[in-house]
Amino acid sequence: MPKLKRPPKLSRHKASGQAYVTWQYQRIYLGEYGLKEASANYARFLSDLVNLEPAASDPEPEAPKVGWITIVQLCAAFLRFADGWYRKDGQPTTQLGHVKQHVKILVDHFGKLPVDEFGPKRLKMIQSSLVGEGYSRVGVNARIGGIKRIFRWGESEELVPRGTSHALSTVRGLSKGRTAAPERPPVRPVNDATVGEPQPARLAYR
Which of 52, 62, 156, 187 is the most buried (most CB within 10 A)? Predict the structure, then answer.
């Protein structure tokens, strides 16, 4: 077997813990760094690369495709980031709870899907599913917006293909009067008799 000149180095992506190589200006993910799966995928990648080595007159070969990370892996990386970001005075903010809701919805629907296979149509499927489950229009829009933020962050970390965030931004939020999703009941003034009384814990928006 011919020897590959300067084989791509196996690296660890800090945010996700994934092993990857950079080939032709593109990151190719190989599994969790330090596990046998990543090592085996790296060896297979190098073997495929050797077999694709061109003769002097041949055009440059395409990179062997191992694959992108899954949505579950993307969400795990995002949660690690969010756990440190959404804190005040060392305590988690209410936004962290919302983030976990968005992650759960995304994982429940498409957790095993590679991130490069998630696009506007699948986001619309989640949107329709939430309407069918009885979420309010505002609640649906908030959750869809949260899912978009997960992919926007993933793209900034090069865990998601370039252009994914822009494509998902084309999915419009639900408009008042143009959806079967109900409106949230209006917020009423607090009765004077209840002022000063302990208030119940605020529930997440729905």
Answer: 52
